[in-house]
């Protein structure tokens, strides 16, 4: 196959244009991030404090726009410091500012002012959202492991300088990046730069596919050029898709292992709790027995126990449910959280839920067994029936072939004529 003379200039021009577009997007993204950093570092105008309400850290300061609307109050006397006077003074200000209801900080039980700005003190460590009085969501962003300054970068596959540059060359939407983070956590990749390593690996595989098949396109003979062009298209696509498919496969295998181990976990947890151990101590005790039998669940339980020591059991269990997105894990974490919150008997709840989970697994196994007969129908028809047809019809096909190869039609006509003549003579 002879390619037209304009094919190679158009192909290399398109590749160069794509590289320029990617570099421009990276430059624009870095410029936007730099502008946001500069804006965040600008000094804030002095804010006037309200002496009628005691402040709590930095969360009780008013915003600059609010401070500019309220004049500096005069020194407060003993009479003005009464609750009635304070409420009468602060009510018009709150109505003028259109301030929401006060909320309770997640890091303490202190009731903050209605005009308080949420800060990092309003969030517990490792939690995804704050706890507000009106069911609102804490506006403070979630801190990711790779965003912590000074973190160890020894887990980066291609070095501390090359790894982020390669990952930035593979642009992804925030939704896809978050989905990749969930798949990596489910697959057991808990290193701080796991998402960055995955993006860098996918980009390198894409470039290797382009380089290898591009070099083959230059050296292969003309009759093999269509195959090289096909490889030039399919190779980068495989390099982009295969690492993610491998991670998802590992995540599925790990989830199945955890699903099989959940009934045993519930039984052992029930035994430990019924003997007087707390839930964190029970999980720590079960962890030692599960390391050799169910390593995936043992690793997750170790993370739960470590986070329980840092924060509390509620936050650790919620993070466990986010890492392993399975109905069994969600039900398990919800059961422990509700029993701890309501004060009900955890032993009875674990016994009932263990029996329910085993029954659901038995029903699921029966369903798969019933589907097996239908699934085996097509391999049986496609693999067994041709052999049966060959065994039954083979001799007949061979006989017919010999009959036609030896002039069977003429021989048969002659034999029939001879039989007719013999019958005529006998009469």
What can be said about this structure in brief?
By secondary structure, this protein is an all-alpha fold. The chain is 68% helix and 0% strand.
Number of contiguous helices? 13
Shape: flat
Instruction: Note the main sheet.
Output: none
Strand content: under 5%
> How many strand segments?
0
Distance between the termini: 77 Å
Order of helices and strands: HHHHHHHHHHHHH
Radius of gyration: 37 Å
In terms of per-residue confidence, which ranges show pLDDT below 50 for 5 or more consecutive residues?
40-114, 130-136
- What class would the helix/strand composition place it in? mainly alpha
- Helix-residue proportion: 55-70%
Overall residue-averaged pLDDT value: 74
Description:
This protein has helices at residues 7-40, 64-69, 83-97, 159-168, 174-187, 194-219, 225-274, 279-290, 295-310, 313-323, 327-342, 346-405, 408-426. The chain is mainly α and 427 residues long. Among the domains are: 51-62 and 98-140, no CATH class; 255-360. Helices cover 68% and strands 0% of the residues. The protein is flat.
Topology:
Blueprint (H helix, E strand, L loop, with lengths): L6 H34 L23 H6 L13 H15 L61 H10 L5 H14 L6 H26 L5 H50 L4 H12 L4 H16 L2 H11 L3 H16 L3 H60 L2 H19 L1
Helix pairs in contact: 4-6, 5-7, 6-7, 7-8, 7-12, 8-9, 9-10, 10-11, 11-12
Summary keywords:
427 residues; mainly alpha; flat
